[in-house]
Design a protein that fits this description.
InterPro entries: dUTPase/dCTP_pyrophosphatase (IPR014871). It comes from Candidatus Thiodiazotropha endoloripes. It holds the Pfam family dUTPase_2. This is dUTP diphosphatase. By secondary structure, this protein is mainly α. Helices cover about 65% and strands about 0% of the residues. Strands 1-2 form a two-stranded antiparallel ribbon. Helix 3 crosses helix 7.
Length: about 210
């Protein structure tokens, strides 16, 4: 489990560096990204008593993955080494509180993030547990989304030339299909995901007149 956390931390650091080499000194408010994602998650799960709402658990899980990106970044900034960040993450992930409903766990993470201006992995773990998202699923989906982010950057996302819809389907849909067929415990799991995305990515000439 610790090795997988270290792998995710390394990938998150690499992704942040790809966007901005000086990201560690940029002063980005990672905690703010966390609590705003919490609000989006609450909407996907549903909280309005005056209308019928059906929880969209797939979107809830994707929001948890997005929050994990920001939490990993925050952990890196608050530790001298990635090893230290992994230890803190591992400790927090083992501190999930039983019996907390999902809405309350989301609010607790959001409130703590605002209060401390940091990520609390214990509250994150409680939210994961309430949403019935396992660590293995967190790992697999995080790796996949991280690789997709790299893929997007490599294919012109920042410049606006990236093609997000492939033959009528968004790239996220292709990613989900790819992840369902690969073994996340493979040593080259990240490389396999990238290669599969590359194989499915449409040639730009297809979209030219």
């Amino acid at each position: 489990m610790k090795d997988k956390i270290l792998n995710m931390l390394e990938l998150q650091d690499a992704m942040n560096c790809k966007v901005n080499d000086d990201w560690r000194d940029a002063g980005y408010p990672w905690y703010r990204a966390i609590w705003t994602e919490c609000a989006e998650m609450l909407d996907h799960y549903g909280w309005k008593w005056w209308k019928h709402q059906k929880p969209d658990m797939e979107q809830v899980h994707l929001e948890i993955i997005d929050i994990w990106h920001f939490a990993l970044s925050d952990l890196i900034l608050h530790n001298a080494t990635l090893e230290g960040a992994a230890e803190q993450a591992l400790e927090g992930l083992n501190q999930a509180t039983d019996g907390v409903d999902l809405r309350s766990s989301i609010e607790q993470l959001a409130m703590y993030s605002i209060k401390t201006e940091s990520a609390d992995i214990g509250h994150f773990a409680t939210m994961m547990q309430a949403a019935e998202l396992s660590f293995d699923d967190l790992y697999k989906t995080y790796i996949g989304k991280n690789v997709l982010n790299f893929f997007r950057q490599d294919h012109g996302y920042k410049e606006g030339s990236y093609i997000k819809v492939w033959d009528g389907r968004e790239d996220n849909e292709y990613l989900s299909e790819i992840l369902s067929k690969l073994d996340p415990d493979s040593a080259d799991f990240s490389d396999q995901v990238y290669q599969q995305l590359q194989q499915n990515y449409p040639a730009e000439s297809t979209y030219q007149n």
